[in-house]
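Practice record 12: protein with uridine-5'-diphosphate.
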Amino acid sequence: MPEAYVTLATNDGYAIGALVLGHSLHSVGTTRDLCILITPQVSQAIKSMLEGVFNKVEVVNVMDSNDTAHLSLLNRPELGVTFTKLHAWKLTCYSKCVFLDADILAVKNSDDLFQQPELSACCDIGWPDCFNSGMFVFVPNMDTYGALLKHAQTVGSFDGGDQGVLNTFFPNWNRVSFVYNMVASATYTYLPAYKQYGSNAKLVHFLGTMKPWQHRYDSQAGQVETSPGYQHLSPFLNSWWAIYVRLVQPGVP
Ligand code: UDP
Ligand code: MN
């Protein structure tokens, strides 16, 4: 059975991020499939572009009334996006997957992650006993999916998002190096470590409210106009925009 990188987009903004992520994975020479979960809110034009980059574009619907497990969650609307991420465990056509948030950029090949067990991830910078759920290695399985849904319903999420649910479900998670989910955000404060190790990053995660596609780009200079607090991220933001301008933007309606 094949293995795949899996991402998620519930709207066109995140789908643009996913397109750049997909191109970046190809450019670092991944040998694995690319799969994206989208909801019907993603426009047809962007969906067609996703089909050009991803091997599989799976439409999932948070309010799918044919799904009994799903129905029982309907009284928990705040878990909407969380639930959508959990759909990834239903991708049983793959033997193993690496989930990546749509706001991640691949800068080096990370295919060795597929040698890691479920659930492997990196420490969260806010509470390092927890893992950050922007990147995790998992094994699609319907039993796990059912158990996760039940867990979401009974235990719930301590942060209202997927990270809270997944951390209490997988308390004995396996830690992999921070280079597989290097958080690039304005609030990251350990700058000496970033200067020492930042160039080893394999997957860069633009966590936080300001996503790469929300920065201003000076097309004349071919550079991102860096906002205060983001200067240290300009090399990665420029890499993100270089892919966007060359490979994604020409197709955006
Ligand atoms: N996401 C989405 N639509 C939304 C919010 C989130 O598709 O409205 C997906 C997307 O893949 C995104 C991930 O869920 O990368 C997690 O959200 P985000 O990256 O914004 O959270 P952060 O990493 O900043 O905590
Ligand atoms: Mn993210």
